[in-house]
Amino acid sequence: MRNPYPHPDCNRQLADLSSVANRNGWLVVSTITTIVSGSKKRRSEREDINQLIELAKARKIKKVLISEVSRLGRRSSETYMLLEQLTELGISIYVHNYGMETLLANGKRNPAASLIFVIFNEQARTEVELLSERIRSGQAEAKRNGQHIGRKSGSFKSIEQFKSEYPKVIKYLKAGTYTIREIARLAGVASGTVMRVKNINH
Q1: pLDDT band at 2, cuts 50/70/90?
Q2: CA 169, CA 108: separation in Å to the nearest integer?
Q3: Based on CB atoms within 10 Å of each CB, which residue in 112, 168, 178, 179 is the most buried?
Q4: Which of 128, 134, 132, 36 is closest to 81 using CA atoms?
Q5: Long-range pairs for 163-172 at CB < 8 Å and ≥24 separation?
Q6: What is the pLDDT of residue 3?
Q7: For the chain, first and last CA: distance in Å?
Q8: Degrees (nearest 5) of the Cα angle 175, 181, 182?
Q9: Alpha carbons 156 and 140: distance in angstroms, whole number
Q10: How many CB atoms sit inside 10 A of residue 87's CB?
């Protein structure tokens, strides 16, 4: 969503990216300039990212121009997921501070830009490890204080209940012609969910 009162730095970024689009003859379909509030940390709460995904899934855009990769997410894990999602949709991302695109003209990944994916994937892995460590530490502290840890009794779903929630995933898995990422995209779920359903069915 476009902010009616853009920050001066936002105006500069817009001018830089507009200049790039003009030089290359790229038609600008939409301009997204939301300044994210510090309270909106999750990707699902960012209307700008949601708008971007809608445009991408509707095949209304072929490129995304950003000033720097961090504009795609506040967390490395979110940034990496969005990079992968846009790439799988065949959308090239022009990163201005690197002066490069993530995809080549033939639709293949740009080897020079692959380092971006590697860096954010590694940072995302580190974030997950740190979060897991914090959770384990918090659980240990809760146990020491005599608090109950885990789900309430009777709250676990049966295998059949779990499978019934993902009929599309099961259908594409049975087809045997799709990758995990393709199934996740087609069914609108995370790759981890596809893997759990796959493991249950085997």
Answers
A1: very low
A2: 27
A3: 178
A4: 128
A5: 163/197, 163/200, 163/201, 166/193, 166/197, 169/193, 169/194, 169/197, 170/197, 170/201
A6: 40
A7: 44
A8: 45
A9: 22
A10: 17
Q: What span, in angstroms and rounded, lies between the C-alpha atoms of 31 and 14?
A: 8
Q: What is the pLDDT of residues 74-101, one digit of tens each?
A: 676 777 788 888 988 999 999 898 888 9
CB 121 within 8 A of CB 75: no
Amino acid at 95: V
pLDDT digits over 43-84, tens only? 555 788 888 989 999 999 999 999 888 777 767 677 778 888
- Please, is 89 exposed, middle or buried when counting C-beta atoms within 10 Å of its C-beta (0-12, 13-18, 19+)? middle
Cα separation, 139 vs 78, whole angstroms: 25
User: At a CB cut-off of 8 Å and minimum separation 6, what does 114 contact?
Assistant: none
For 46, residues 6+ apart whose C-beta sits below 8 A from its C-beta are 34, 36, 40
Q: What is the mean pLDDT of the chain?
A: 77
As a whole number of angstroms, the distance between CA 98 and CA 87 comes to 17
Phi, psi at residue 160, to the nearest 5°? -65, -35
What residue has token string 């507009």?
18
* Residue with tokens 């846009």, as numbered in its chain: 86
Cβ atoms of 72 and 82 within 8 Å: the answer is yes
